[in-house]
Specification:
Order of helices and strands: H
Structural class: mainly alpha
Shape: rod-shaped
Distance between the termini: 52 Å
């Protein structure tokens, strides 16, 4: 079962980065619309 563990450890940071990017986009888009 080492393969799923490797995939899990490599996917977690990517999922976190995508979540941060989504939060940044959601925070930036309204400023463009209102500005």
């Amino acid at each position: 079962m080492p393969i799923p563990l490797e995939i899990n450890t490599t996917m977690q940071p990517r999922v976190g980065d995508t979540a941060v990017l989504m939060m940044v986009i959601i925070g930036i888009v309204p400023t463009f619309w209102t500005g």
